[in-house]
């Protein structure tokens, strides 16, 4: 069973690579999509493509809308959406992506540490699975794909 998985959330660790590598090593038929993870490119894409803005609000506004097109397409095309909340920053965009995925009825997996449990209780309630580590996502995708448990 082939799966389309959209990876959303924090961009400061290599969790996406851990999941992609783990699924590849397990021989799973999974296609991944993601938001742009180059922080500078993501922040500056709007003005770089549509013209500079002297006001930071409009600079961010252009970039946010351009990024939203990519993210909406990725979530809409996904069978499963994985959203990771990191420890260092508040990822309001990740919470928005989780809500958007839930509103579309997408299967949602949320990753975060125990320190975020209370703050993300509503996001967790919308998810079909909540875990703490990328390896757990690989194990979930293995189970969903072929019904086998981790060795």
From TrEMBL:
Family annotation (Pfam families): Nuc_deoxyri_tr3
Domain of life: Bacteria
Matching InterPro entries: YtoQ_family_protein (IPR019884)
Record-linked NCBIfam families: YtoQ_fam
Protein name: YtoQ family protein
Organism: Paramylibacter ulvae
């Amino acid at each position: 069973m082939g799966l389309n998985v959209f990876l959303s959330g924090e961009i400061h660790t290599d969790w996406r690579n851990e999941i992609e590598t783990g699924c590849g090593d397990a021989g799973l038929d999974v296609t991944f999509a993601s938001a742009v993870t180059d922080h500078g490119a993501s922040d500056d894409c709007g003005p770089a493509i549509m013209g500079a803005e002297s006001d930071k609000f409009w600079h961010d506004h252009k970039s946010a809308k351009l990024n939203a097109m990519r993210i909406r397409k990725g979530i809409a095309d996904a069978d499963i959406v994985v959203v990771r909340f990191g420890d260092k920053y508040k990822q309001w965009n990740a919470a928005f992506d989780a809500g958007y995925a839930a509103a579309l009825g997408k299967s949602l997996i949320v990753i975060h540490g125990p320190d975020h449990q209370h703050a993300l209780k509503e996001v967790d309630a919308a998810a079909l699975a909540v875990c703490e580590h990328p390896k757990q996502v690989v194990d979930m995708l293995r189970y969903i794909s072929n019904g086998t448990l981790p060795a």
